[in-house]
Amino acid sequence: MNAPRAIALCQCFSGALEFQAGHWREAEAALRESIRLHRDIGAASGEALACQRLGVLLTERGQLEEGLAVLDDGVIAAERALLRAHCLARLYAALARNRLAANDAPAANQALELGLEMSERHGHCATCDALLLPAAVSVRVRQGAYAAAEEFYRRLELASQKYASRVWVAMALQSRAELAAARGQLDQAIQDYRQAYENFTAAGNALESARCLTALNALRHKRRAAGDVAAARAEQSQAQAIYARLDIFR
What we know:
Elements: H1 3-21, H2 24-41, H3 44-61, H4 64-78, H5 84-101, H6 105-122, H7 126-143, H8 146-163, H9 166-182, H10 186-203, H11 206-223, H12 228-245
Helix pairs in contact: 1-2, 1-3, 2-3, 3-4, 3-5, 4-5, 5-6, 5-7, 6-7, 7-8, 7-9, 8-9, 9-10, 10-11, 11-12
């Protein structure tokens, strides 16, 4: 591997690790540099994956239109990439999340369908499924298609058992909690979000930990069982501290 390509890949991996650790300024800088370097050497696969990761970061920060533009750039790069199907599946999953955040359910569904089609075409990839399946649950929940959401959750649960990693287990619990909350099953949702939070925290995933805490806060205020108000206050305080560190204001 030549030096420019190696440096571009290192910047992409560095950006992904910094993002997961909650160092988002460093992650953004690394990913933007990775995109530039990959473009300079004409490495479309690397450019597409770096765009996907930067698009996710911008979306989570609330910069939805900028995130959308970066993801669209990634799709253009992916069309000429050697790993075209893998790149596109991941980008479409990120686009679905971006459009859900923008409350554009039809566009989110369109992106999801394209991602699922791409995944079916090239055979299921663990990394692609890790992005696509939780997004599929969220899109179907937003549509009120709970039976379809549960089918995707079941696939995610099977994958979590197969790979036996904290992150997969946490993703499955989080998706089950999202579906339970939508169905009004508050006790189940709170239990699952709490377990998901513990697994994400153990895995060092700050963003998803905070997301679980925010969901718990809302559900406890809705349920209002004994101790819920105090627990919700503590969870919201924890979440806000994480968001502040990530430069997210909610």
